[in-house]
Each structure stands twice: as C-alpha cells, then as structure tokens.
Amino acid sequence: MLLTPSFFDRPVLDVCPDLLGKFLVTKQGAWMITEVEAYDWVDDLASHARHGKTDRNAPMFWEPWRRYVYLVYGMYWMLNIVTGPGEHPSAILLRWVESLAGPGKLTKHLEISKKYNGQLADKKTWLWIEDRGVIVKKNQIACLPRIGIDYAGEWAKKEWRFLIKKYSI
DNA sequence: ACGATGATGAAC
DNA sequence: TTCATCATCGTA
C-alpha cells in the first residue's frame, strides 16, 4: 500500500518510528527501511532549515510527502522525505535500507540524484514508500544521536536517529 | 588515522 | 574570498 500525504503530515518525531519497516520502492526493486534521522524545524541547529529558506533547502519548507535530495561534501546525495505538520520545515533522512548500509551508498546504488529533488513521493516519478505489512514493535527500535552533526551543540545530543536494533552494527 | 572529494551557503 | 558541512573511500 502506497504511503500518502496523511502519513507524512504529522510531527517528524512521530513519523520516524513508523517509517521503520516500510519499503522504499524504485524501478530497481524494493528495500525495507531500517534506519532514519529526524531534522525538526528551524531551531534544530543540525537542520538545513536552521538559517531559513535557501535555494537548496526549499523543499523542506514545502508540504509533506515531497522529497528533499541534496549533495553533501560535494560527493554524496542524501535522500529525505518532508514531513509536517503542514508546511513545518522538517524532513527525514533515509540512512539505511536493508542491505544498503549508509545514506550515500543507498542513493549511489539506487541512482538517486538531483533529478528526484522537490517532487512528490508518488508512483509517477518511480520513487515512493510502501507499507507491506511488516510490524516493527517499539521494543525493536533504538534511538541514538544523529551522525555527523557534532557542531549542533545541545541538538547534537538529541536521540533522533531511529533504527531497527536487529540491523544495527 | 587522515586526506581527497568539490556543491552550497554562511561568515568574514 | 574563505571556510565548514546531515559521507565514504582510498592510502598509511
């Protein structure tokens, strides 16, 4: 079952645990999502939205269910899905899917780049998220600090990286 | 353990 | 104009 805007039009910290166990689907196949990170609003010092809207981060300020794809360190594409509530500038970084360990490897393997930025995560553009009936219980989920954002002060300590314990290293 | 990678945007 | 960044891979 395709996940639609109502799933994503909620606070990002509520959507994150619900995304674990869902499937990322492309022309190449379907992969179960096993690790994600939340970036919440403009006062989260780790979020690209922290300095307001720019050319790069504009999709974060649009409505939920859009994709936010950007290049990091001049090398790797990062795939995010925008969440709510409403046009609250928040997004979820997809870090791992089953057998593809790492946000940069994930996008490289699935050939996800700039051309996927800003669009709705629907079937027209061949990159969407499905519920395939996998149930992930709360006690199977671990919450840890986010990766690569040590500069973010108090925000760096927030345990906004969600993963299925079974798939952690 | 560390440098290279090289787009984007903030700080200077 | 310079510097840091939501990562990964070579080389040591």
Description:
The chain has helices at residues 5-8, 12-19, 103-109; strands at 23-26, 29-40, 67-72, 76-83, 90-97, 100-101, 127-130, 141-144, 161-164. It is mainly beta and 169 residues long. Strands 1, 2, 3, 4, 5, 6, 7, 8 and 9 form a 9-stranded antiparallel beta sheet that branches. The N and C termini lie far apart (30 Å). The protein binds a DNA duplex (12 and 12 nucleotides) through strand 3, strand 4 and helix 3.
Rounded radius of gyration (Å): 14 Å
- The CATH architecture designation is Roll
**Number of discrete domains:** 1
Shape, principal axes of CA atoms: globular
Q: What is the percent of helical residues?
A: 10-25%
Q: Which class best fits the helix and strand makeup? A: mainly beta
Bin the strand percentage. 25-35%
The average pLDDT value, as a whole number, equals 96
| Major β-sheet profile | 9 strands, antiparallel
Q: What separation lies between the terminal Cα atoms?
A: 30 Å
Q: Point out poorly predicted stretches.
A: none
- Name the CATH class: Alpha Beta
What's the CATH superfamily, by name?
Methylpurine-DNA glycosylase (MPG)
CATH fold call:
3-methyladenine DNA Glycosylase, Chain A
Order of helices and strands: HHEEEEEEHEEE
Count of β-strands: 9
Helical segment tally?
Answer: 3
Which key features would you list for this structure?
single chain, 169 residues, mainly beta, nine-stranded antiparallel sheet, 3 helices, 9 strands, globular, DNA-binding
